[in-house]
Amino acid sequence: MIYQYNAVKDKCPLPLVKMRVLLNKMVKNDICIMQISDAGSIADIPNYLTKKGYHFSQKKLSDSVVELQIKQVS
Prior knowledge:
Blueprint: E1 2-7, H1 14-25, E2 31-36, H2 39-52, E3 55-60, E4 66-71
Parallel strand pairs: 1-2
Antiparallel strand pairs: 2-4, 3-4
Protein name: UPF0033 domain-containing protein
Domain UPF0033: 5-71
Pfam families: TusA
């Protein structure tokens, strides 16, 4: 399943909290695609994902928006 979350208008810590809810729903091979623009979220979310062992990629969509693709591997 592919989960989508546009958090461009949300401010930290809301994107992290909502992302954690989505990650808890995910099963193996599910993907979460989210867009973030808040500076705190852009710094905190990749750090969180790395610490928790998630496989993810990120790309810059514009000067202020980053898209993350997170894959559930277990």
